[in-house]
Amino acid sequence: MHDSVRHGDQAVDDWDRHWLDFSAAAELSPATRYRRRLAMHLLSDDRRDGPVRMLEIGSGAGQFAAEFLADAPHAQFLGLELSRTGVDLASRRVPAARFLQRDLLAPIGAGSSLPDGLDFRATHALCSDVLEHLDDPGLLLRHAAAYMAPGCSLVATVPGGWFSAFYSHIGGAAAAQLFQGKWLKAPTTSGELASLASLTNLGKLLAEALASSDTLVKGPTTTIAGQQVVELKDTTKNGSLYVATTGPPYPIEIVKRGSEAGHLLFSRWNEPVTLTAPAGAIDLSQLQHAG
Questions:
Q1: Domain CATH code at residue 58
Q2: C-alpha–C-alpha distance, residues 251 and 104, integer Å
Q3: Which domain holds residue 9?
Q4: Read out DSSP for 101-138?
Q5: What is the pTM of this model?
Q6: Measuring CA to CA, how many Å separate 232 from each of 139, 240, 242, 249?
Q7: Distance between CA atoms of 132 and 145, rounded to whole angstroms?
Q8: pLDDT digit string (tens) for 105-144?
Q9: pLDDT by residue (tens digit) across 50-81?
Q10: Are residues 208 and 91 in the same domain?
Q11: Which of 34, 44, 124, 270 is the most exposed place for a label (fewest CB within 10 A)?
């Protein structure tokens, strides 16, 4: 779920708000991670002998870019993203890649030249979890083709319908039909979802994420989601902490780079949050005991 804004008489997705609120949570989604692994497998089967130029259509906060360049560090990578916030997050997360804000539902202009003098023709491309949001996905793909070389290998994924590929993979056809579209609940002290419990305890989460280090280096100031911040770089762990430079020195973002790349974005400090547990959630512990 994500927020929408009004554009004339039509509601459109607010992707800047989406990436601010849900980018960290999206990385924990097992279905999203499964589709990323599947895309990596399909793209690795078709690596050319020559240089690899990877295009991601809808690059989000840079999760796939980090994984791809960890596996293919000599490749060129270009991410196209509608959200300015997504571009900013991805650029900080994967400095070796290039990310541009693009509305691929709008034509890029006459002729074959690309915006900003960019000369990039991809040998490989990925469009994951994008097409299902569009009324005319073919239009986006036709415009994205301007960034692809002849013979470019394109992988496209969308979330599974009633018969989810992810749930089929981990539990077979019966699990796909049982779990699709449902909330899951599980104990916080044991089981496969126990590791997520720390995300609900802010004090514990910050204590683990902000553990002291002897190798912190002060970096430049920048802006994250409208907040001016200063970077504190951990050269040993290949990560950075961004702290607000105005007002209380709250942590704003934690970034981990490399093969285990990830990030946490903190916003709405001291604002109350009300959550309502969904009705009809499936209790995984009961299923395990029944089996």
A1: 3.40.50.150
A2: 34
A3: 4-157
A4: E--TTS---SSSPPGGG----EEEEEEES-GGG-S-HH
A5: 0.56
A6: 42, 6, 6, 12
A7: 18
A8: 887 654 444 555 467 899 999 998 888 878 888 999 999 9
A9: 789 999 999 988 889 988 998 888 899 999 99
A10: no
A11: 270
